[in-house]
């Protein structure tokens, strides 16, 4: 019987909990790169041949086409390395395939991982922190967005390189605002205003809005109130040991949400964000919350039907100063690959962060540029003129106050915590439990899962 690589143990512990996709997650669409078998082996390059860099990613469909273009441009830009992108399905599928490869040399050189997988990836000790290459190259991190770097920085060290980044914003139907006597240039900024607007917008078979039962949004509501989701500085000053999802920020949010559903001014359309998006585009609801990565698609789909407005994520009128947490994914370098491959992966990461490449990525996907100078590129300027709603997303990112709350929570069982949070939200919206009771139950279960995880990785 083959002995298990000790580095793989943390992967096995958590892999079964990776059942949900993250904010703006990888799609299950297809592109030109078929998923590679887990047992595939790689031959060492012959003398004079470029070093092959295998990159596992979760960008399917149109996102996959954009990935392929970036890779092709990198490969054409130099002769030392050849990047081979391999689409592995959803973020969860990508993670599970990575786990299966850890006990051999069949894995990639570089892997895209959703943001809630960070604590887990670091705990595996199977990666080479990109900080090593940053220090060796004296790479200037100040050229990247601080609020994006903030999320991926732990103990002053950058373990992965940001790639696709987003945050949630309010989308609203300007035409329905006008019909309801509301100012179409003034979206609701607080919970109280959103509840009031929803009442005024609910008429003629149109509901005020709908919020998908998506735990990512609950996490954002916490950050926007300056509240932490787990203890120990959101798990950043030391490993988290307790969920704070049942704190005042959570109860206040779920009470507000439930009241709008009870008032029949906010529809409960379940967990799928696509269902709220379809209802919004069909003119059945006047407001919704969704990722900035959906902006271009929403505005384009609404063209000729109604004007789309955008606003910041709402928060309680008496909330502490806060902001949004970035969503999306970053790229990690695997430490079991040859040094030449790791160096090549770093060169590719630098290429992806270049303003020109970030401009292309932003315009063709809707994800934020991670590089500040990308906003100076003509491509981005023209796109911002065509889609002025995107300025809302950029302003919200830049106005988010850096703190442990907006830096985002860190825990090894994040995907499972999201499932438990969504179950609690469902229980409340369906009238089965009170906000406090449902969130207390979720917090207890999440805390138990965190304890189990911490015990395993400490062995």
Report what the structure shows.
By secondary structure, the protein is of the alpha/beta class. It contains 20 helices and 13 strands. It has helices at 9-15, 61-77, 91-101, 118-124, 131-137, 146-152, 174-179, 191-201, 215-224, 231-235, 248-262, 273-281, 295-302, 339-352, 355-365, 378-386, 390-399, 404-407, 414-429, 435-457; strands spanning 51-57, 81-87, 110-114, 127-128, 153-154, 157-158, 161-166, 168-173, 209-210, 266-267, 287-291, 308-311, 327-334. The strands form 4 sheets. Strands 1, 2, 3, 4, 7 and 13 form a 6-stranded mixed β-sheet that branches. A hairpin with a 2-residue loop joins strand 5 and strand 6 (157-158). Helix 1 runs antiparallel to helix 4 and helix 2 (61-77) runs antiparallel to helix 15 (355-365). The longest helix is centred in the C-terminal third of the chain and has 23 residues, at 435-457. The protein is globular. It starts with 8 loop residues before the first helix and ends with a helix. Mean pLDDT is 89; it is low at 1-42.
Number of strands: 13
Give the helix/strand class.
alpha/beta
Please state the average pLDDT score. Answer: 89
Given the C-alpha coordinates, what overall shape results?
Answer: globular
- The whole-angstrom Rg is 22 Å
Strand content: 5-15%
Considering DSSP H and I runs of 4 or more, what fraction of the residues is helical? 40-55%
Biggest sheet details: 6 strands, mixed
């Amino acid at each position: 019987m083959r002995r298990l690589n000790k580095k793989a143990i943390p992967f096995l512990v958590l892999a079964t909990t990776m059942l949900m996709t993250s904010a703006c997650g990888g799609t299950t669409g297809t592109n030109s790169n078929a998923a590679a078998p887990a047992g595939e082996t790689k031959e060492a390059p012959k003398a004079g041949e470029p070093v092959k860099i295998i990159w596992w990613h979760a960008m399917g469909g149109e996102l996959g086409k954009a990935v392929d273009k970036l890779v092709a441009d990198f490969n054409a830009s130099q002769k030392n390395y050849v990047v081979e992108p391999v689409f592995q399905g959803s973020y969860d599928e990508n993670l599970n395939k990575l786990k299966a490869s850890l006990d051999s040399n069949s894995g990639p050189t570089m892997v895209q991982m959703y943001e809630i997988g960070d604590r887990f990836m670091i705990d595996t000790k199977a990666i080479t922190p990109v900080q090593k290459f940053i220090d060796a190259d004296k790479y200037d991190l100040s050229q990247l967005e601080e609020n994006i770097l903030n999320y991926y920085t732990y103990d002053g060290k950058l373990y992965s390189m940001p790639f696709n980044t987003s945050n949630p914003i309010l989308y609203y139907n300007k035409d329905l605002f006008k019909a309801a006597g509301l100012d179409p240039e003034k979206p609701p900024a607080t919970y109280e205003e959103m509840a009031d607007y929803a009442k005024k917008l609910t008429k003629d078979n149109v509901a005020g809005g709908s919020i998908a039962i998506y735990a990512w949004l609950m996490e954002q509501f916490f950050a926007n109130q300056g509240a932490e989701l787990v203890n120990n500085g959101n798990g950043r000053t030391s490993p988290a040991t307790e969920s704070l999802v049942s704190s005042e920020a959570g109860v206040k949010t779920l009470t507000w949400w439930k009241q709008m559903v009870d008032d029949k001014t906010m529809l409960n359309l379940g967990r799928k964000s696509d269902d709220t998006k379809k209802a919004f585009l069909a003119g059945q609801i006047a407001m919704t919350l969704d990722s900035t990565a959906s902006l271009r698609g929403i505005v384009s789909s609404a063209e000729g039907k109604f004007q789309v407005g955008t606003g910041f994520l709402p928060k309680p009128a008496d909330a502490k100063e806060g902001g949004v947490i970035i969503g999306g994914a970053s790229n990690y370098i695997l430490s079991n690959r040859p040094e030449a491959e790791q160096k090549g992966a770093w060169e590719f990461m630098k290429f992806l962060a270049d303003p020109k490449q970030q401009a292309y990525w932003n315009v063709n996907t809707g994800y934020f540029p991670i590089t500040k100078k990308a906003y100076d590129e003509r491509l981005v300027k023209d796109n911002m003129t065509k889609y002025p709603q995107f300025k809302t997303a950029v302003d919200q990112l830049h106005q988010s106050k850096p703190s442990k709350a907006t830096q985002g929570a860190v825990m090894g069982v994040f995907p499972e915590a999201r499932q438990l949070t969504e179950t609690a939200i469902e229980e409340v919206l369906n009238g089965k439990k009170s906000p406090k009771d449902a969130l207390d139950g979720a917090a207890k279960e999440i805390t138990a899962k965190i304890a189990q995880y911490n015990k395993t990785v400490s062995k």
